Amino acid sequence: MGRIGFFTAASGVIAYQTGLDITANNLANVNTYGFKAARPSFADLIYTKRNNNIEEVQTGHGIKIDKTDYMFEQSTLRHTERMFDFAALDEGFFAVETPSGNTAYTKDGAFYMTDIDGNGSWTLCDSKGSFVLDYEGNRITIPFTEDENVDFAALSEQIGTYRFPNPYGLDQFGDNYLIPTGSSGEAFVDDTVTKKQGYLEASGTDVANEMSKVIEYQRAFQLNINMVKLHDNLNELVNNLR
C-alpha cells in the first residue's frame, strides 16, 4: 500500500507543531518589553495529477511553514518615569554590542549605566550586559560624575536609532535581539525616529489572538495525528491479509 497519505499527514503534524511552538513563544513573552510577536505562514507542498485528462483534479501532498514574519506594529507605550527607559517608535530600533562582540538590534529600551572597568568611566548597557550604541556604532559614555547628576538631555541625543529597508525580514538572535538578513537588508541610521524618554514599549503579543491560534493549530494537529494513525492501521491491516 502506498505511503503518500502517511507522509502527507506527517507533514501537517510537523507544520502545526511548529505553529504551536511559535504561538507558545509569543504567549511566553507577553510581558517582555519590546517583544514583537511572530506569525507563521503556511504553504502547500507539490500537487500531482490524478488523471492526465482532467487538469482540475489534483492530489495535494501536505503543507509546510513557508516563512515566519514579525509584526512590527506600534505597541502600547508604558510610562515608567525612569529616565534610563526609552521607546523607539514605529519601526525604529536601538543597536547594541552583545557580550560576544556582535551587533544586534532591539525594541527594548530599558537601559542602565555601568562602570565595567571600575575606573569611573560609565557606559550605557541593557539588562543583558550589551553596550548600547550611538549613531556611529560606538559605545555610549554617560556624562556623569559623582558630584553631578546625569545629563539626560545629552544622553538621549547620543542614543542611536536605526531602521531597516524591510524589518519584517529580520531574524531572532535570542535575548529579545534581532539581526539583519538578506531579506531585511542592512540597518541604516535614522535620527528622525522618535524616542520617548521615560517610556517602554509593551510586548506586541495579543493574548486573545494567540489563544485563538492555539485552538486552531491544536485542532489541525490532532486531525493530522488521527490521519497518521488511520493510515498506519490500514497499512497494518493490508499487511496482515497477505
List the helices and strands and how they pair.
Blueprint: H1 4-28, E1 38-44, E2 47-49, E3 58-60, E4 63-70, E5 77-79, E6 86-88, E7 94-97, E8 103-106, E9 111-114, E10 123-126, E11 131-132, H2 152-158, E12 162-163, E13 171-174, E14 177-179, E15 188-189, E16 195-197, E17 199-201, H3 207-241
Antiparallel strand pairs: 1-4, 2-3, 5-17, 6-16, 7-8, 7-11, 9-10, 12-15, 13-14
Helix pairs in contact: 1-3
Task: Pick out its properties.
242 residues; alpha+beta; 2 domains; 3-stranded antiparallel sheet; two-stranded antiparallel sheet; 3 helices; 28% helix
Provide a descriptive summary of the structure in words.
With 242 residues, the protein is an alpha+beta fold. The chain has two domains: 4-72 and 205-241, no CATH class; 77-201, no CATH class. The chain is 28% helix and 26% strand. The chain contains three helices and 17 strands. The chain has helices at 4-28, 152-158, 207-241; strands at 38-44, 47-49, 58-60, 63-70, 77-79, 86-88, 94-97, 103-106, 111-114, 123-126, 131-132, 162-163, 171-174, 177-179, 188-189, 195-197, 199-201. The strands form eight sheets. Strands 8-7-11 form a three-stranded antiparallel sheet, with no helix packed on it. Strands 1-4 form a two-stranded antiparallel ribbon. A hairpin with a 2-residue loop joins strand 13 (171-174) and strand 14 (177-179). Helix 1 packs antiparallel against helix 3 (207-241). It is elongated, with a radius of gyration of 25 Å. It starts with a helix and ends with a helix.
